Amino acid sequence: MERSQARTGDLSWRLSSHPITLLFFLGFRISSLLFYLLGSLFTSNFILVFIITILLLAADFYYLKNIAGRRLVGLRWWNEVDPASGDSHWVFESQDRSGSAESGAPSQNATDKRFFWLALYAQPALWVVLAIVSVVRLLNPIWLSLIVIALILTITNTLAFSRCDKFSQASSLASSAMYSGGMAKSLAGGLFSRLFKG
Length: 198
Hints:
This protein has 198 residues and is mainly alpha-helical. It is built from five helices and two strands, in the order ααββααα.
């Protein structure tokens, strides 16, 4: 029986451009869910399970926001507060991952991209399922508070990276139109040829 070759974009961590980053990213994403679900098997101390789950969620939030997002898909976000007015606004940053020769940037690894977006959207969905189960089974309300904290952290990252991705796609579309022989170049060329022809 012949084994099929792994192709770029397959869900295999060995195809990643940053396998250590990817493994830590997936480890943090999975560990908070697993400890929430299985922590009571190891200890009957609710406070210990609560605190360790919160610490794992915080580590996941930090690692995703500051390391994994930047290395796996070239996206970063943060929130800035204007000291004069007190208004806050989100700042999105994206690297050029087109892999074009003129930009000199590395191309986007399809495997990293698939793992990133799949894990980014799957974790809040799993926490929502756990919230529904918690409400239906009428568990202790304090468990529901832990799920609410998990949802706030995971949905914040999910929304921020989704906005950041949309922002980067819009800016790359605009820059490709301006600089790579797009519409702006055609219009400018036609305008200058008319001006100098007489």
